[in-house]
Design a protein that fits this description.
This protein has 660 residues and is α/β, with parallel strands linked by helices. It is built from 18 helices and 26 strands. The structure holds beta-D-galactopyranose. The site of beta-D-galactopyranose has 9 residues, from loops.
Length: 660
């Protein structure tokens, strides 16, 4: 049987790390284009993403097309050896659309219309919007599908909208009919016996709009699933249009990091290239770890090389206070992405705007221009990426530890009526990843239903709701010899958000050696649960263990005195609290060692991150003082072209890429 070959990132990179960014030439007089090209070439830019926000320019009036400028731009890029990632401009419809067709505008939960004047003011459910989006995509595909500058399609931009409008409600009902088949099934799944919510007619069902008191959590959960699915429908419609015209050109749509609104596992299956936008705060002491988390997740979604679609060369302008990147940090974080599997290092945006909402957001060419430090650093990095490209691109390395993450569990757990609003799913996920990152253990991410057999250790920071298939998967994983470590609030509910009798799925309780889970004891902010040799945060539990389970750490003092804080039954570990960062790091590092997983390198200084990609060893120094790193043996540093024997010194924000 012939296996369909899907295009992938390698078709766009052709052995070169893609380097460049969003380019918005329509914001500039055409006379500046040659200057852009000169600076791009000097900086080693080989890829630009064009057209992301060009809809009003491309379709100035309904059905009209103005492609002349884009024709000239595409030719100019091609003549200069710069590939174009061409976007469908559908994330920011022109003003005429909302004006003529108010039904294309999304409506908030409390009934307010989101108008044009910003961006992303489209209703994913609007048939009119979808019709216009399809038409412009068709025309772009027809016109540029054969253009030699085209390397990839970029659909829309950071799909992230919600819509509670009437049209969305109609689609929601259709979606629910497909999911449940009957109102009886829906009433059962939503538990509508509670508070007199039983539905007798599909027409009574709405998107979960502003209500007097807490909303039905299962309805809200389904609305989140529905929203992700509607956005996906929009993506798929445009993807299929460009795919029909250019079956061999890869298609992507850029994710936001750990964005709540899209089930990115599901989405990634539909993308030829998985891409992400990544903006850690340069002032955040954990910025590098936050970046690593997103990079690990994106690589895992891509199951191979991925694209850093956007990052900032300097400050962003959407935080309360926006700091520039100190000298060397842009290079360090860019190479960190490459270490963790990126084959494309791109920015928002090429040239810093002079007008509009993002004029204080950095560009590769900042307001300071060619002489500015930002451009000078961008240029140096371009040269370095070009030098290592051939040895890096296409290489993929899987790791021994998987962190499980699932959007549906996140959505289900994040409900109004939960026991503690101090427990925030992304924060818990970050805490666990941080513990592993600080222990110099590189991790993949996986979905709870993925095949986990390749991993020696699987950690579950928190999966409040699990499907039966996921539970079977976890049980099978441990049965086959895997080591599983789970945090609290895991396996509490089924996929409709029905709490399991006993407060946790019985098979999981058995797996971890929990005989009775009497009560959850959430902790206030700043409150700690004293345990044998650490302090627990956020949560604690009143648990009786089963006889064959071992208490690895117990609560000390207070109501829970002597009860298990960390419980183990065989290779299954359960943490009923979140140990403080250092303690969680030690615990997980110890469990990893027990399962035969070693840090990437022994004796690494705290601020040095080591990551393997293929046979390359990346060393990334996140500190400002020089450090010496021991690397037994003789290596070749691709960045300096020199030999390294047994040790090397990394200067402030220094990087080495070592080949044996
Ligand atoms: C991204 C977006 C870009 C730009 C950037 C600024 O979310 O895709 O268009 O707004 O942020 O950081």
């Amino acid at each position: 049987m012939a296996v369909e070959r899907r295009p992938h990132l390698g078709d766009a990179t052709r052995g070169r790390i893609l380097y460049g960014g969003d380019y918005n030439p329509e914001q500039w007089p055409e006379e500046t284009w040659p200057e852009d090209v000169r600076l791009m070439r000097a900086a080693g830019v080989n890829s630009v993403t064009v057209g992301v926000f060009s809809w009003a320019r491309l379709e100035p009036r309904p059905g009209e097309r103005d492609f002349g400028w884009l024709d000239r731009l595409m030719d100019l890029m091609h003549d200069n050896g710069i590939g174009v990632v061409l976007a469908t401009p559908t994330s920011s419809p022109p003003p005429w659309m909302g004006h003529l067709h108010p039904d294309t505008l999304p409506v908030t939960e409390d009934g307010r219309t989101e108008y044009w004047g910003g961006r992303q003011h489209f209703s994913h459910s609007s048939a009119t919007y979808r019709r216009y989006a399809a038409a412009i995509s068709e025309d772009l595909a027809a016109r540029y599908g054969g253009h030699p500058a085209l390397t990839m399609w970029h659909i829309n931009n950071e799909y992230c909208t919600y819509d509670w409008s009437d049209e969305a409600a109609a689609r929601f009902r259709t979606w629910l009919r497909q999911r449940y088949g009957s109102l009886d099934a829906l009433n059962s799944a939503w538990g509508t016996a509670f508070w007199s919510q039983g539905y007798g007619d599909w027409a009574e069902i709405h998107t979960p709009r502003h209500a007097h008191y807490m909303k039905n959590p299962s309805q809200v959960l389904d609305f989140k699933r529905f929203t992700s699915d509607m956005l996906l429908e929009c993506y798929l419609a445009e993807r299929d249009i460009v795919r029909r015209a250019t079956p061999n050109t890869p298609v992507t749509s850029n994710f936001m990091p750990l964005w709540v609104g899209q089930d990115a596992w599901r989405w990634a299956e539909e993308e030829d290239v998985v891409s992400v936008d990544l903006y850690p705060d340069p002032r955040d002491p954990l910025g590098a770890q936050q970046g690593a988390l997103v990079q690990d997740m994106t690589r895992s979604q891509a199951r191979g090389p991925w694209m850093l679609m956007e990052q900032a060369a300097g400050p962003v302008n959407w935080r309360g206070v926006n700091h520039p990147k100190p000298r060397g940090l842009n290079r360090l974080w860019s190479l960190q992405a490459v270490a963790r599997g990126a084959d494309a290092v791109c920015y928002f945006q090429w040239r810093q705007s002079r007008q509009g909402a993002e004029k204080f957001h950095s560009g590769m060419v900042s307001h300071a221009g060619e002489e500015g430090r930002t451009y000078q650093e961008v240029k140096q990095l371009g040269a370095e990426l070009a030098a290592i490209s051939a040895q890096v691109t296409g290489r993929h390395t899987g790791h021994d530890i998987a962190v499980l993450h699932d959007w549906h569990a996140w959505w289900a757990g994040a409900q109004d009526g939960r026991l503690s609003h101090e427990v925030d799913y992304p924060d818990v996920l970050k805490a666990w990843h941080r513990a592993l990152w600080e222990a110099h253990l590189t991790t993949d991410f996986a979905h709870p239903e993925h095949d986990l057999t390749a991993y020696k250790v699987v950690v579950v920071p928190q999966l409040y709701a699990l499907t039966d298939a996921a539970i079977d998967n976890l049980l099978g994983y441990v049965r086959q010899g895997g080591t599983l470590v789970s945090g609290f609030l895991t396996g509490v509910a089924d996929e409709d958000d029905r709490v399991h009798p006993g407060g946790m799925d019985a098979r999981l309780r058995d797996l971890f050696g929990i005989r009775t889970l009497h009560e959850w004891w959430p902790l206030d902010a700043g409150e700690y649960a004293e345990c044998d040799d650490f302090r627990g945060t956020l949560w604690s539990e009143e648990i009786d263990k089963s006889e064959d389970a071992t208490t690895e750490a117990s609560y000390k003092g207070g109501e829970l005195d002597g009860l298990p804080a960390v419980l183990r039954r065989g290779r299954a570990w359960y943490l009923s609290t979140l140990p403080e960062p250092g303690a969680l790091r030690e615990l997980l590092a110890g469990i990893a060692t027990g399962a035969g997983v070693r840090p990437v390198l022994d004796g690494l200084p705290d601020q040095v991150e080591a990551v393997r990609r293929g046979d390359l060893l990346f060393l990334l120094h996140h500190g400002r003082e020089p450090v010496t790193v021991r690397v037994p043996g003789t290596h070749h540093d691709l960045l300096t072209g020199t030999a390294v024997t047994n040790q090397l010194t990394l200067e402030r924000y220094g990087v080495a890429v070592l080949r044996p």
